[in-house]
Specification:
With 157 residues, the chain is α+β, with helices and mostly antiparallel strands. The chain has one domain: Cupredoxins -  blue copper proteins (Immunoglobulin-like). The strands form two sheets. Strands 3-9-8-5-6 form a five-stranded mixed sheet, with no helix packed on it. Strand 1 and strand 2 form a beta hairpin. It is globular. It starts with 7 loop residues before the first helix and ends with a strand. The relative contact order is 0.22. The protein binds copper (II) ion. Copper (II) ion (CU) binds next to loops.
Length: 157
């Protein structure tokens, strides 16, 4: 297996193309990164799979793409990954009032694991994070009115 490269894209490609790791039995278990792709459309939906399983500490590459055509002001999409136990209604209410911060409520900062940018049509954003705490982490789009239909889960084991 080749030495680890530090350019993230190259590293991901390498990992995707070389799956065998027979060369080291004594090193700690390292899980390959997982890629989570979310696509937001003009019907306030994340298209495709919205429930994902990851291992504790696994590197997560989350790519959000706005595949719709409506303008950002009317149909913007982001994704906010929340800690277990976060009250979604309370969070969404505060998000509503946080337009100046792209609907990321500062008062809920401690409930947010990670979030992607607010996107308009054709835009995408990629974020990297990991979650150590086991449990079901709900993610939503926090654009006003969207969290009812634009949501999913990342279950950490
Ligand atoms: Cu949205």
């Amino acid at each position: 297996m080749k030495k680890l490269l530090f350019a993230p894209v190259v590293a991901v490609l390498l990992i995707l193309s070389s799956c065998s790791k027979k060369d080291s039995d004594d090193s700690p278990v390292i899980h390959d990164p997982i890629t989570i792709e979310l696509k937001g459309n003009d019907a306030m939906q994340f298209v495709g799979t919205t429930d994902f399983n990851v291992k504790s500490g696994q590197d997560i590459n989350l790519i959000l793409t706005h595949i719709g055509q409506l303008p950002k002001e009317a149909m913007g999409h982001n994704v906010v990954v929340l800690k277990p136990g976060t009250n979604l209604d309370d969070f969404a209410t505060k998000a509503f009032q946080s337009r100046e911060n792209d609907y990321i409520p500062a008062t809920f900062a401690s409930s947010i694991v990670a979030h992607a940018k607010l996107l308009g049509p054709g835009e995408s954003d990629a974020i990297k994070f990991k979650i150590e705490t086991p449990g079901v982490h709900t993610f939503i789009c926090s654009f006003p009115g969207h969290y009812g239909t634009m949501r999913g889960t990342i279950t950490v084991k």
